[in-house]
Design a protein that fits this description.
131 residues; 2 helices; five-stranded mixed sheet; three-stranded antiparallel sheet; mainly beta; single chain
Length: 131
């Protein structure tokens, strides 16, 4: 699995090859990323505009790819092999609102924004895994 990461603010991205392809978490899926958009906010953060951003970090919250593995207990129209987009925000994944698929209403006020405080482009969060 490969990614481009910010390893130091204000410096070029670094190509990193690491780890195995993740497995689908409970209630989630694994998506093989084909495209990940990097917007002006990502660029500003990579330049050091958000000191709360922990490094290293994969940028990008506009993610599209192919579903390659699904938790079989999830009721959805999405099947392995379908092209999908990834919602760029997750919650705690433990409260009732997150378990109902509404992380923006997380009862624990946990906000995981891909590309900011969790990896983007290859989103690895409570919502699922990507590579």
């Amino acid at each position: 699995r490969r990614s481009q990461k910010v390893v130091e603010f204000g410096k070029p991205l670094v190509l990193v090859e690491e780890g195995e392809v993740p497995t689908a978490p409970r209630g989630g899926a694994v998506v093989k990323v084909a495209f990940a958009g990097v917007c002006h906010t990502d660029v500003e953060m990579a330049a050091g505009g958000d000191p709360s951003m922990k490094l290293p970090r994969i940028l990008g919250h506009e993610i599209a790819g192919t579903a390659v593995e699904m938790d079989p207990t999830v009721i959805t129209d999405v099947k392995v092999g379908d092209r999908v987009v990834v919602y760029g925000m997750g919650g705690c994944s433990k409260c009732s609102r997150c378990e109902e698929g509404c992380p923006i209403e997380c009862l624990n006020f946990k906000k995981n924004f891909s590309g900011a405080n969790i990896d983007g482009g290859g989103l690895c969060s409570s919502a699922g895994g990507c590579w």
